[in-house]
Amino acid sequence: MKDWRRNLYLIWAAQLLALLGFNFPVSFIPYYVMELGVQDPRLVTAWSSSLTAVPALLLAIFSPIWGFVSDKYGKKMMVSRAMLAGFITFFFMAKAQSVEGFFILRLLQGVFTGTIGACMAMVCSMVPPEYLSSSLGLMQTAVFTGTAFGPLIGGIAADALGTRVSFQVACVLLLSGFTVVTWLVREVEGPGKNPHEARVSSPFIGLSMLFASRVLLAMSFALLVSQVSIKAMAPVMPLFVKELSPETSSLSTLSGLVISITGLCGALSSTFLGRLADSAGPHRILAACTATTALLFLLHAIARSITGLLVLRTLTGFVLGGIFPTANTIIGAAVREEERGKAYGVASSASYFGNFVGPLAAGVFASYLGIRSVFILISFLFCISLIATRRVASSKANGRLGAPEP
C-alpha cells in the first residue's frame, strides 16, 4: 500500500477516535455542572452555554495561529499536539472540583486543540491532487461519525459509570488517536508542491467580501443559522429531555440519543439531497430544506413527549443535511475559480461564528424566556434565511463575486 494511502487511513482512524472523545461531554455538561455544585436552573443553563460556546470562539481565533506553526514546524506535530492537549485537558476535567475550574479547562481546550483543521491540512499535504476530493470526503465521514456518536456513547458511559469516568474513557480515545498519529503515521510530502494544500487564513480576514455578493451573504447566513441550530442544542437539549421525561433514570443516554440522531440523519441525507440538487437545482432544494427546518423547530416548541421529540430531531437532521451541500454549491457557482478559496474561507468564518453564538444565545434565551423560546428563535432565523435565499434565487443580480451589483 502506498505511504500516502496508508497515512490517510491512519489519520482517518485517529480523527474518528479524537472526535468521539471530544464529543463525549456534549450530552452531560449540564449534569456535570450540577454535580459541581450549581443548582439554580438559570445558572446551570448559563454555565452550560458558556462552557459550550467559549471553546468554539477560541478555536476560531487560535486555529489560524496553529496553522501558521504547522507550516513552519510540520503538520504531523500539530495533529499530535491537538490530540495530546485534548487528553491532558480531559484528564483534569475528570478531576474538576468547581465549575470555575471546569470552565478554565474548557478555555485551555479551545486554545490548544482543534484536530479537524490540523488533520485536513495534513491530508492535503500528502495526498496526490487527483485523489484529494475523495480523500477529504473520507475524512468528512470521520467528522460526521464522531460528532454523531460521541454524545451518545458519552451519555451511555456517564449513566453506566459516572460523568467523571466518562471523561476518563474520552481520555483513552484521545490518547489512542495521539498514539496512532505520533508512532504510526509517516509524514511525507505529496508529489511536487500540492496546489490544493490547505492555506492558513484567519477567519476574520476578508469579511468585507460578504458585501460584494448577495449570493455569498445569503449563503453564509444560511450556514451560520444551520450551525447555530446545531450548537444551540448542546446546553438546552439535556434540560429539555429532563423536562419531557423527568422519571427517566438514564437521562445522559437519552440526551445523547436525541442529540446524536440529528447528526447521523444529516450525514446520511447530505449525499442524497446533494445529488437531488444536481437535477432539481440547488436553490430549490435549499429553499425547501430551509422552510421545512423552520417549521420543524416551531414544532419543537410544542413537543410534549420524548417520542415526538425524537421524530422531530430525526426529520430535522434529514433536512439540515441538504442545507450544507446546496449552500456550498451555490457559493461555488457564484464566484470565479480563482476566488473560491476566499469565498469558502468567508463561509467557514460564518460557520465558526455560528458555533460560538449558538450555545451563547441558547443560554440567554433559555435562562430568561424558557427552553422552548430557543426553538422559536431558531425557527425565526431560518425564516429570515429563507427570505434571503428566495431573493437571491429570483434576483438577476447574482453575478459572480467581484462583479458590481446594482
Portion in strands: under 5%
Q: Give the low-pLDDT segments.
A: 190-206, 396-406
CATH uppermost class of the largest domain: Mainly Alpha
Structural class: mainly alpha
Distance between the termini: 55 Å
Q: How many separate domains?
A: 2
Structure summarized in a few sentences:
This protein has 406 residues and is mainly alpha-helical. It has helices at 3-22, 29-35, 41-73, 75-93, 99-112, 115-126, 132-161, 163-184, 214-231, 233-244, 251-280, 282-300, 306-334, 340-369, 371-394.
Word description of this protein:
This protein is mainly alpha-helical and 406 residues long. It folds into two domains: 187 residues, MFS general substrate transporter like domains (Growth Hormone, Chain: A), CATH 1.20.1250; 199 residues, Up-down Bundle (Growth Hormone, Chain: A). The protein is 79% helix and 0% strand. The chain is built from 15 helices and no strands. The longest helix has 33 residues. The C terminus is likely disordered.
Question: What's the topology here?
Answer:
Layout: H1 3-22, H2 29-35, H3 41-73, H4 75-93, H5 99-112, H6 115-126, H7 132-161, H8 163-184, H9 214-231, H10 233-244, H11 251-280, H12 282-300, H13 306-334, H14 340-369, H15 371-394
Helix pairs in contact: 1-6, 1-7, 1-8, 2-3, 3-4, 3-5, 3-10, 3-14, 4-5, 4-6, 4-8, 6-7, 7-8, 7-11, 9-13, 9-14, 9-15, 10-11, 10-14, 11-12, 11-13, 12-13, 12-15, 14-15
